[in-house]
Design a protein that fits this description.
Length: 267
């Protein structure tokens, strides 16, 4: 049933964060060993998150508070993917953005300016700046010709006591009110994965995608030609597998198993 992956032969690892590295503010079992293994074996790695709210520095500090030292350049977010997409498509464009520091900083760094009068794009991420006022503003800007972009297509995300609506759910009212469809830049958009592989300096055949969701992580690894690992430390169980027409290369309890298997396979 399960194909195996020789982790020692792989050069690069792209890992989702929530449900894989941490849950809320708690580091998951085996993560420290996994990161240690990546360093010991000189593997290229990237932590990928669809959450557009955090900057790489904030993610670096979040992990530092949990006792993990991961330099800023090892993070890639849907906010960075969105900014890269816009810089490629329309250099120097202007946007009306609804989101947090992660999204705004990424857009500024890509040379994109803020404009709430006649922007080229309306860009929506997660965040507390979302209100009926910003929603109404965004809706009318899209009605007047601004193109609609979503940082990611997640409908919801886990929080301490349940779920929170995420980007796809937050942008839906604008789509419904205007009749226009948003374009989403985060996982499972293959553009985000290609950029990730480029950052790792890796060919897809030499890389592994590790995540806890079939519909964003596994599918994006699969469609980019990477080996895929589904970990059961987040939202998925073995039952989840039965509802999808595709499957991961390997199913593991958590990322600690990757390090353990790799060490066991070493001659």
């Amino acid at each position: 049933m399960e194909t195996s992956i020789n982790f020692n032969e792989k050069k690069g690892f792209i890992c989702d964060m929530d449900g894989v590295i941490y849950h809320g503010n708690r580091i998951l079992p085996g993560v420290a060993e996994f990161i240690q293994w990546l360093h010991d074996e000189d593997k290229e790695y990237l932590f990928l998150t669809n959450n557009s709210g955090y900057t790489p520095r904030e993610l670096n500090q979040k992990l530092a508070r949990m006792g993990l030292d991961v330099p800023e350049e090892h993070f890639y977010t849907s906010a960075l993917a969105t900014a890269a997409f816009l810089r490629e498509q329309a250099p120097g464009c202007s946007v009306f953005a609804i989101g947090e520091a992660g999204l705004l900083n990424a857009l500024y760094d890509a040379g994109i300016t803020m404009n709430d009068v006649n922007p080229d794009y309306v860009v929506v991420g997660e965040g507390r700046s979302y209100s009926l006022d910003t929603l109404t503003k965004a809706t009318n800007l899209v009605m007047h010709g601004a193109k609609l972009i979503g940082a990611n297509s997640d409908v919801s995300g886990p929080i301490e006591n349940g779920i929170a609506p995420a980007c796809r759910a937050l942008i839906a009212p604008i789509e419904m009110a205007t009749g226009k469809q948003a374009y989403f830049c985060g996982k499972p958009n293959p553009l985000m994965m290609r950029t990730g592989l480029k950052k790792l300096n890796c060919h897809s055949g030499e890389a592994v995608m590790v995540g806890d969701r079939m519909d964003t992580d596994v599918i994006s690894g699969l469609e980019s030609g990477m080996s895929t690992v589904l970990v059961l430390s987040g939202v998925s169980t073995r039952e989840t597998l039965k509802t999808y027409a595709y499957r991961p290369s390997v199913v593991l309890d958590g990322v600690g198993d990757i390090a353990a298997m790799a060490r066991a396979e070493k001659p």
